[in-house]
Specification:
Largest sheet: none
Structural class: mainly alpha
Distance between the termini: 21 Å
Strand content: under 5%
Order of helices and strands: HHHH
Helix content: over 70%
Length: about 110
């Protein structure tokens, strides 16, 4: 039986609306760290959804989650300015995905 795999698309959309409503409710400014929480959360929720679809291993979800949290903690510690922080984080995700592919990670 062919299952419909929608979680990889649904979870990021849900995260987007939840984050947007929190931004509006608490009137947060878009600093690089808040922007990373937004972008990193979308990537992590996508990886979680892809895991629920059966196309990514639990190890992959844990790696994406650990990288998101580590990068967020670094941003909170050092208070970066400009968009280079977010671009470097996205480059880190890209490299992490390539490494997972090369080492035999599912997805």
């Amino acid at each position: 039986m062919n299952m419909v795999r929608i979680w990889g698309s649904v979870l990021p959309i849900v995260y987007f609306f939840l984050f947007s409503s929190l931004m509006k409710q608490y009137d947060l400014q878009f600093t690089p760290v808040v922007y990373w929480a937004f972008v990193g959360g979308i990537v992590f929720s996508s990886s979680l959804g892809i895991y629920f679809d059966g196309r990514l291993s639990l190890r992959g979800v844990a790696l994406f989650g650990a990288f998101t949290l580590l990068w967020l903690l670094l941003g909170l510690r050092y208070r970066p300015s400009g968009s280079a922080y977010v671009v470097a984080g996205l480059a880190g995700y890209f490299l992490l995905a390539i490494i997972m592919r090369r080492t035999g990670g599912k997805g």
